Amino acid sequence: MFADGDVTFKVSAPSTVEAGGKFRVQFTVNTQNVSNFSAPDFKGFEVIYGPATSSQSSFQMINGRTSQSSSIIYTYVLLSESPGTFTIGSASVQVDGKAVKSKPVQVRVLPSGQSPSAGSSGGNSTNGSASGNGSSNNGSDGRNASSAQNISAKDLFMTATASRTNVHEQEAILLTYKIYTLLDLTQLDGKLPTLDGFQIQEIPLPRTKEFGIEQYNGRNYRTVVWSEYLLFPQKSGNLTIPAITYEGVVVTRNRNIDPIEAFFNGTGGLMEVKRKITTPALTIHVSPLPNQPAGFSGAVGKFSVSSTISKQEVDANDAVTLKISVKGNGNMKLISTPEVAFPKDFETYDAKVNDRFDLTRTGLAGTKEFEYLFVPRHAGTYEIPAAQFIYFDTDSRSYKTLTTEAYTLKVNKGKGGTGQSVSNYSGQQQDVQQLNQDVRFIKKGEVVLHQPGDTFFGTWKYWMAYLLPLLLFMLILIMGRKQMKASANVALSRGKKANKVALRRMKTAKKLLDSHDIGQFYDEVLRALWGYVGDKFNMSQESLNKENIEQSLSSRHVPDENIQQFMKVLNDCEFARYAPGDVNENMENVYNSAIDAISKMEDNL
């Protein structure tokens, strides 16, 4: 397509045709103020019709605003003569006295073979969704289709291909299901089964399936990619993608019916035949990640890292933001938060995570940003050391370490004085504050007088004034030591917070449920379930899989029915988005089951 300002001039032609077949080429310009149309060079093809000129106009009103569009279409019908790859050159028109040209397009002509029943132009389409339901709109009458008794596996079949069959854990795999047909396929029904050991992301495809032509084993088939999935293996070993049985409906000619009777019955002698189509099973060999270094982020793919800081000179008690951005392609969802060694005098908060990545055929591509908010409380000069990001590089099959920039932060005394300044990280100096004033305000109000001889010394109030602070100090000391001990035990602290963190994530999932955000809802519920187990048992992210979870729960004498319930919720959540039926009801059931499973697990543990 060529665009010049608001004027566009585009060409529409099939990418693949069969030798000896007819196909249509259209040139469309989005204005009717055109003249002097010049046809392109159709070398390699015979023009059997055209140019036929037609025009289109549309008028619409939205919220009181009107818009109008018009276009002119030049149509040719060409005959492909011999196999090869040919270029249809640029067409040109005059728009307001200025020449506008279309882009050249290439058309591949396949050798003549058994033709698909619905035509050779590759422009026919089947409406359907990735779940498998569809209906033909190509208008084929099925005259070239075989009879029901003669339909073979070579006339209609599906392939299942994986972009790679030898991978490491968490390495992305593209799974593609593709249809090959010589028949008039009008409907296809089937769905991806449960895949144990994989995290699945479905790649959105258009509901309207546009068929093309592809030569396979010497025959020209109509083909279309029916569904695609991105798989992330969660455990090592030989993992199997089982065969799927689809049920297709094809239109074929009934040769046993009288043509005259078929004509008067309005059937044209056609009949619908159901055919089962089974895809091949695949085996994926998944290698475990090599010995993981300390600080491994869980990232597998290809990444880069960068960092920024909001300001490098601030007043005490002012907030500062440090951002670390991880950019690349891989298992972006499973990247853990990088650790930043902030100075001890800083008040820090949990990092906010912003996901800005898209689902592609090679993995999740984009940026994952970690935003750290901290508040320096005292004046001085501080060093914020560089943070490390360790990931497994799928190209070199090795771990790589990326380092962010280190920052020097100068903290000035806040307005009115902070009460304390720090010249460096280790030394402190006390500011002098004026506490007394030469002139005092005169006390107003009632005056309480005491009789001579009244004394506070030796009374019970006197002793309580000593004992209470002492008891309070001892209580604070005991609680502080207990808290320090608990904080030092990272695993214990993590386990105690597991339920709180999981419930906080489920609250977020509830908001996504109310807003009908399907993809984010299931991701958040899965994050809550996996995160709960990882925190509760102090398991690293890369060791989280269903087998380890079942073993950990069994070793802690959790009842079998509770273990099965928790594992069922994990499976239901992973595949609820592919389940038929009411989407809202599925989301509600998954949410309630997840809450119940976490609550029962917390009671048992």
Structure report:
Helix content is 21%, strand content 41%. It has 605 residues and is of the alpha+beta class. Strands 26, 28, 29, 30, 31, 33 and 34 form a seven-stranded mixed sheet that branches. A five-stranded antiparallel sheet has the order 1-2-4-7-6, with no helix packed on it. Strands 14, 16, 18, 20 and 21 form a five-stranded antiparallel sheet that branches. Strand 6 and strand 7 (65-80) form a beta hairpin. The longest helix is centred in the C-terminal third of the chain and has 29 residues, at 460-488. The chain is elongated.
Quickly give the structural class: alpha+beta
How many domains comprise the coordinates? Answer: 4
Radius of gyration: 36 Å
Strand tally, please? Answer: 37
Q: Note the main sheet.
A: 7 strands, mixed
| Overall pLDDT | 79
So what's the CATH class of the largest domain?
Answer: Mainly Beta
